[in-house]
Amino acid sequence: MKEIAAVIGLPSCLELVSRWGGRDLYVPENIGREHPIAFAIGLEAAQKLSAEFASCTLSLPIERNATIDLRNELIFKEWKDGASVLRLSHRWGLTRPGIDAVLAKMKAREADARLRSSNPPIDERYPG
């Protein structure tokens, strides 16, 4: 979803997920004004999407999952920027244990990503 949002912007990306979340969305090479994607996100964003993902099928996450993932990423970023757990719980309408759970999940995800990037998979068939 981050790759799509980088191309068409977060609001348009969320609109796509709202309309086609949980399904595959084929992106044609050319999108005109009357294409359903253009109706959903506007012609300019649809053409940007087509320029980047022409002839691709995008597997869009279910809207609820996508918005929770996005919320968690924003909470984690705010925490890394110095926001307290109490402040985050008030801002996001979650309990302090709820914020703690989000932070623990995001810390684990970040550690896993660091580990994967520093240790590429080893192919046992080719020693050395």
Helical run tally: 7
Strand order of the largest sheet: 1-2
Percent of residues in beta strands:
5-15%
Helix content: 55-70%
Largest sheet: 2 strands, antiparallel
pLDDT averaged residue by residue: 91
Shape: globular
Oligomer: single chain
By DSSP, the count of extended strands is 2
Structural class: mainly alpha
Task: Give the low-confidence spans.
Answer: none
Q: Could you give the order of the helices and strands?
A: HHEHHEHHH
Distance, first to last CA: 37 Å
Radius of gyration: 19 Å
Topology:
Elements: H1 2-8, H2 10-20, E1 24-27, H3 36-41, H4 43-53, E2 56-59, H5 63-80, H6 85-92, H7 96-118
Antiparallel strand pairs: 1-2
Helix pairs in contact: 1-2, 5-7, 6-7
Give an account of the 3D structure.
- With 128 residues, the protein is mainly alpha-helical.
- Helix content is 66%, strand content 6%.
- The chain has seven helices and two strands; from the N terminus they run H-H-E-H-H-E-H-H-H.
- The chain has helices at 2-8, 10-20, 36-41, 43-53, 63-80, 85-92, 96-118, and strands spanning 24-27, 56-59.
- A two-stranded antiparallel sheet has the order 1-2.
- The longest helix has 23 residues, at 96-118.
- It is globular.
- The mean pLDDT is 91.
Question: TL;DR of this structure?
Answer:
With 128 residues, the protein is mainly alpha-helical.
